[in-house]
Amino acid sequence: MPVFSRILPPLVSSYAVQAAFALVFVPQHNEKFYDLAGAVGYLSTTFVSLYYPILKESFVLRTLRPLPPLSSFAPRQLLLSAAIGVWSTRLGTFLVQRAFKAGGDSRFDEVKHQPAKFSFFWFMQATWVFLVGLPVYLANTLPPQAHPPLHVRDYAAFALFASSFIFEVLADHQKTVWRHNKDAKQHDEKFITSGLWSISRHPNYVGEVGVWTGIWGLSTAVLQTSYFPRGTVVAAAISPLFTYFLLRHLSGVPPLEKAGNNKFGNDPKWGEYKRHVHVQCSLWSIFRSQRTRRNVPIFWPWSSTRE
């Protein structure tokens, strides 16, 4: 089917970019460019999915064809591509700067000296780039003239993306300022509990899940057209679901919670901060936490099950 043949180039792009970075930095035991590779992977794969027809024509004719103007694309294609571009550029830049400032990434302290394991992380990142960006890559395969017009659902989804993006950026900014002030001896707090960090232990992750939920929502009208096999819109939901799984159960919350317990486990303030923490929390408990300053969710807004 055409959709599968056109999604193959983004798949190849996802793995090719990470392979290129791995070939350079695995032998150097250098993890500082890992997050940059992720950002470049998203940007290049989105570019390939959007411009694939002209790229294919250039390859077949063996001549460089001019890229079509942005006005030739459907508004939804531009919104989706811009969303993934803005998110990946911001996050990639932020993480790379943090890695260089810290002198490296502690996640790779051991594995970067083991080429096979270190390479595995790069190729897992390729899988992450492809699966999480899948709604965008799929939507971009649909010819612009076949895109349905934007509707209320699309505007609501984009609003969710925009608000979640701002939420994530603000959370990262607040923690950066907190760390800067701590380095400047303006406070002696061991861990941040102010701002958005007073309503969630990991507000940046909350924002990221919201970002990908909004992007998926913006793609649903396209993925429900007859161009795609039935069930494609459900399959594309792997984007926010995989993001949530990674952050909540694998590479996000668990190692940070473990590190916090190791560092502050004997601190009464840490115990107080965790005492009424929920793994997943309803909006009502967030409102209540602002009144009592006690029930601080790890991750919201889902259920109210205790950890």
Automatic annotation (TrEMBL):
Keyword Membrane part of the UniProt annotation: yes
Keywords, in A-Z order: Membrane, Transmembrane, Transmembrane helix
Family matches, as Gene3D superfamilies: 1.20.120.1630
Cellular component per GO, a single term: membrane
Residue ranges crossing the lipid bilayer per the database entry: 6-26, 33-54, 118-138, 150-171
InterPro entries: UstE-like
Protein name, UniProt field: Steroid 5-alpha reductase C-terminal domain-containing protein
Source organism of this protein record: Collybiopsis confluens
